[in-house]
Fold this sequence. Notes:
Layout lengths: L1 H12 L1 H20 L19 H9 L3 H4 L8 H16 L1 H7 L2 H31 L11 H27 L4 H27 L3 H24 L1 E8 L2 E3 L2 E3 L3 E7 L6 H10 L1 H8 L7 H7 L4 H22 L2 H10 L2 E2 L7 H34 L4 H4 L4 H24 L29
Helix pairs in contact: 2-8, 2-9, 5-6, 5-7, 6-7, 7-8, 8-9, 9-10, 9-18, 10-18, 11-14, 12-13, 14-16, 15-16
Amino acid sequence: MKKFFTTLSNIWKIEDLRVRIINTLLFLLIYRVGSFVVLPGVNGASFANQKAEGLVGLLNMFAGGSFSRASIFALGVMPYISASIVVQLLGIAVPYFTKLQKEGESGRNKLNQWTRYLTIGITALQAIGYVRSQIGPDARLISDPLFTLLTTVVLTAGTLFVMWLGEKITDKGIGNGISLIIMVGIIAQLPGAFITEFSSRTSGTGGLVTFIVEIVALIGVVMFTILIVQGTRKIAVQYAKRIVGNKQYGGVRQYIPLKVNAAGVMPIIFAQALMFIPATVQQFFPKAASNGILIAMSNSNSWQHNTVFGILIILFTYFYTAITVNPNQMADDMKKNGGFIPGIKPGKSTADFIDGVISKITLPGSIFLAIIAIIPAIASLVGVSPIFARFFGGTSLIILVGVVLDTLQQIESHLLMRHYDGLMKTGRIKGRTAMPAAAGTSPTVI
């Protein structure tokens, strides 16, 4: 405990770090206050007891409850995330975007500009869909088409403002701004879910002992998720010795850390998008609502749904790892810098060796990721409330663990730069530092 307070004191002593933490908290406070501001022309009282389930519940969690409150930040940063993913995929499929990725800072600035333009278009389309699906006629105080136009403009402006807040946090705060905004939105749902589960257990079935068992299980799942996020396979790389003047360069052994889960949370997001197709088909085709397969696939707790969900996650993990990690580029960069893997010839042999290692570690990584993704369904089946079960795994837990590790890693870096002790007695905190990928490819913010 004494070391903990000493570390807090050291953090406060570093002026730059202190200012960055305060700025981050202020920007996040602005975001949370804005999430309670209801859209103009909407009767906020009609959303008081609205429950968000399924895809809506997932979006509502990422938006910190703004989605179900019809807030000006209802769409959150999800349109920006979608635009970032599209631009990242275009960088692999379209030569123009591939060229921009290789142009350094100027290319990244152009890609960021394209991402912002695409965010505006995606937000406008999602805003129209939000108005039609979530805001009923009884909640509208203004008649159409003025209401739809006004709400679309406000929701688009709200998303752009949240995106600006995220960029300011990254620039003047600590950690990745967009990731922190998503994390705060998820954490905002935790106290309510915790209280609801505690009340249901103490006043209903299970009792306090069952609730304690659930908390212990949650801690175990978090520890397991940390192992997956931080797990790496190190490949030794030897650099040739060079003498320049009176100084020696190279001649040392370093390591390439290949992530066990290089794809991060993206496979779960892609798989979830496909798993919502059966429910969408039922909504647009009422005659198909009685189909047994569609009913089973629409039930997130059924074994059919979770089996297909797990298989899709494994496939998407391989797919996303293949398009984001480029062994050929890694081998070329290593050769240009005079590096080689002991016992492996430079060039194609090195690329094949790295590709083989990635293929071997991706399989257990994808399986573990699928297990984490279906744990919430297992928790629901054993009696955990659906709201609290979401924190037992899936997208939300992986994002929480990754963002917290990244932020703590940055704080520890500031401490070590000023010759203070780190946050841990042994070793250093490892965040989600991306493995070497295709040249110019920037990792997705989450």
